Amino acid sequence: MGLLLKERIAGDCILGIWNITEDYNNLYSKLNLLPEEIEILNNFKNEPRKMEWLSVRVLLREVAGKELNIIYNGNHKPLIKGNSYQISISHSHNLSAIMLSRNRRVGIDLEFISDRINSITHKFINEEELITEDQNQRNMHLYIHWCAKEALYKICDKKGIDFKTNLTIEPFLPEREGLLRGFVNTRYRKDYFNLKYFTFDNYIIVYTIK
What we know:
Blueprint: E1 2-9, E2 13-19, H1 24-29, H2 35-43, H3 47-64, E3 70-72, E4 78-80, E5 86-92, E6 95-101, E7 106-112, H4 121-124, H5 135-155, E8 167-169, E9 177-185, E10 190-200, E11 203-209
Antiparallel strand pairs: 1-2, 2-6, 3-4, 5-6, 7-11, 8-9, 9-10, 10-11
């Protein structure tokens, strides 16, 4: 299926989502990888990780309309070589997503909804945050919180952030799509962020732009 979504948001920001339906050789053939990129790819131990890595780069080419190279800083934050764009990346199960902007900082996260999140709730929900008691909506509510915090973590350069103590999502009622407000409180930054979320099949996608 390949490209599921390519949407321009808030001026020069572009959101892209890719559904990984191709095999390894098909994805690989869509790219002109540099020698150092081939080395990175070959060092991955399992096939799903390789497929994620390839799909992100194919999606980047589709969204940007040209070949761009992703590098990483010391906090493992992705950057575009040459600093021509700001980028944020996420992947879960069969979907990969990116946000790209020339002039604005971006953060995105997507997750496949399952029951697994209940085992880690205590690690990222703080006492100021409210989660519904409705069991039919609880998992979705928790995943929206998790994705929102991941998006904040990424837009703030992944620096000095604990999900439970440094990130707070203001109370909201979970819907199929909506707006959120989050607060980042670290030694490096104290700031509010607006976030947008939506659902696709059994996935939650949350992004923020600053």
